[in-house]
Amino acid sequence: MSDAHPPSLPEASLDAGLPMFLSGGGEAGAMMRAHDWSRSPLGDPRGWPQALRTVVALMLNSKFPMFVAWGEELAFLYNDAYIEILGDKHPSSLGAPFKDIWGEIWGDIGPIVERALQGEGTWWEKLPLLMNRHGYDEQTWFTFSYSAVRDDSGAVGGVYCACVEATEQVLGERYRKEENERLMTLFEQAPGIIAVLRGPEHMFEIANKSYQQLIGYRDIVGKTARMALPEVEGQGFFELLDQVYTSGEPFVGHAVPLKVAREPGAPLELRYIDFVYQPIRDPHGNVVGIFVEGSDVTPRKQVEDELRAANRQKDQFLAMLAHELRNPLAPITTAAHLLKMGTLDARAVRNASEIISRQAEHMTSLVNDLLDVSRVTRGLVTLEKEELDLNTIVAGALEQVRPLIEAKRHALTMELSGEPVHVLGDRTRLVQVLSNILNNAAKYTPAGGQIALRVFAHGDRVTVTVTDNGIGIEPDVLPYIFDLFTQAERTPDRSQGGLGIGLALVKSLIVLHGGTVDARAAPDGGRGSEFEICVPRLEVEAEAPVAHAAENAPQQAPLRVLVVDDNQDAAELLGTLLEVQGHAVSVEYDGRGALQRARQVRPHVMLLDIGLPDTDGYALARQLRAIPELQDAVLVALTGYGQAEDQRLAVEAGFNHHLVKPADLNRVAEILAEVQQAYR
Questions:
Q1: Better-scored residue on pLDDT, 322 or 415
Q2: In the structure, what pLDDT confidence band is assigned to residue 9 with cuts at 50, 70 and 90?
Q3: Which helix (H) or strand (E) holds 478?
Q4: How far apart are CA 83 and CA 608, in angstroms?
């Protein structure tokens, strides 16, 4: 077989006797005319059957890829359009056996060829074939048909194929599919809500997972917005869609409320969404749909609302704090001016002094409440638990509140358990809790009201209830009554005061005791309120004797006391008070003077301010402890700082006691009494 590639066969060749069906055909036709057919099973073209001639003539004059395989060996003939499919197999494939040419894919096409030879025509679309036509295996796809070609006797003499390579089409479709899948994956995984609505009725075309999560998973694709979300009717969203579709102008919404039923039959749930309605236009600029994009900002909205509420609460608290601190300052200032004038008689002096003492105690109570709630909320309070009879705790709380109850002429009804009810708790803190609730009941009940206190045990719990017929608690305040800085709205006739931290402290302390506290309207449906405290009951085998506080030991002998404070007014007043109690008092205002005076008088007790102009109280305490004659002296730290770290520093410096300013004078008296008892 010649390897020549003549572009055409001279007309003289046809004159030499070659048949007309081989005329034309481009390169393939020229190759057929120049081919030495004497070595081929097909033989001289002039002897080919008419059917083969007809197919070859049709094939050579077609621009569509075609081939015919004829005879027992299925000799292969093809046109110019098929050359590109053959690749490196051209031109050696001309006249070669079909199976030898496409041996690598014969397992796929051999059975199809056999069916054609049996007279059965077939059609295949995008059949995958692993071909080797450029020196390497490559995946291809072909769309083709195989048809039987019959010879002059009517028997099947060969197979005719018209084909087209679909490799680029398949790869393009596969790429587009993968790209669409990637886009759909991104669409589905997008954290924001995304949906596409089509037409003036806003029919859902697609909606991602976040959108479905917002509305509650339901079948919405293919439905109009009004059909898919009927509960949204009247909330303005459908009207906005209509407006955007008609005007072609986008709409942007921020934290817009949406009420939606997220489960079948469920009540409407309020959500807040940021969203954009963006019109979708066709190539002519006409609006054909709306692209919806946004996010569910309900958590953010809730946080913002809480922050705004907390900010308002803070402002209200600061206003209350200023009010509460100014209230006692006014009578204190007036009483101090009267005393300064020096024209008052003994009774007036005593009255002014009582006013100052009472109002100072009130301010101290406010500051102590602030410090307490700060320590509790930060987890810095350590309970000193012991076995207690809750009946005695109630008695201690009543003792603190009784003056207010009597002053307002309230009728107090008390029902104790009738038997000891033991709990494991901190005596001081439990008294603080109950006195706070009783104080509120007395304060917010008009004069001549009724207060009922009840203690009862049930199973492994002990419950205390305090009920009053006072002004009650507004329903909108009741759910937050134990929150920090929460207080009912004040009016001019409700000037009882308070910082809104007492009940928050009550709840925190009761929780530390493993209990619960609750508030509700009066059980009889009238005015007033009821508070209920419930704590775990402690089972004991035998009743423990109730310890009663011992009376303060009488003074056996005056003590030598040194007061050191750079605040001269505070030092002088404390010294005067201790002198009135019969003690020998020395007063100094700095560390240097304190050391000199201590060596001179050898005090039994020294009350030292921590912040001094020339040193600090901790260093002064160490210097005093280094003096042999003062080894047994009792050192008491006086400071405005009462944190655990401050107490630790005081102990390390050698202090015996740590008191927070303004010092509890009763506690000072107790310390002095203990020292006197030691020297008795």
A1: 415
A2: very low
A3: none
A4: 111
Rounded to an integer, the average pLDDT of 54-69 is: 95
Report angle CA 435, 570, 502 to the nearest 5 degrees.
20
> Which tens digits make up the pLDDT trace of 480-498?
777 766 554 443 333 444 5
Architecture of domain 11-171: 2-Layer Sandwich (3.30)
DSSP collapsed to 3 states, 77-143 = EECHHHHHHHHHHCCCCCCCEHHHHCHHHHHHHHHHHHHHHCCCCEEEEEEEEEEECCCCEEEEEEE
What CATH class has 386-536? alpha beta
Q: What three-state secondary structure class fits 407?
A: helix
Per DSSP, 45 falls in state G
The CATH class of 560-679 is alpha beta
Q: Please state, in angstroms and rounded to a whole number, the distance separating the CA atoms of residues 529 and 445.
A: 10
- The pLDDT score that the predictor gives to residue 11 is 38
- What's the pTM? 0.45
The structure tokens listed for 292 are: 């919806």
- The residue assigned the tokens 């002198």 is 579
The pLDDT assigned to 456 comes to 87
Neighbours of 101 (CB within 10 A): 22
pLDDT at 500: 60
| CA distance linking residue 678 with residue 656, whole number of Å | 14
Geometric angle at alpha carbon 281, from 279 and 286, rounded to 5°:
110
Token output for 246:
């008609």
Give the three-class secondary structure for 167: helix
Q: What is the pLDDT of residues 125-164, one digit of tens each?
A: 999 999 999 999 999 999 999 999 999 888 999 999 999 9
According to the model, what pLDDT value does residue 10 have? 40
Q: Which CATH number does 190-296 carry?
A: 3.30.450.20
What is the rounded average pLDDT of the residues 285-294? 95
Q: Which residue in 369, 513, 497 sits closest to 427, CA to CA?
A: 513
Structure tokens belonging to residue 408: 């307002």
The pLDDT value given to residue 140: 96
**Beta carbons within 8 Å of 526's beta carbon, 6+ residues apart:** 469
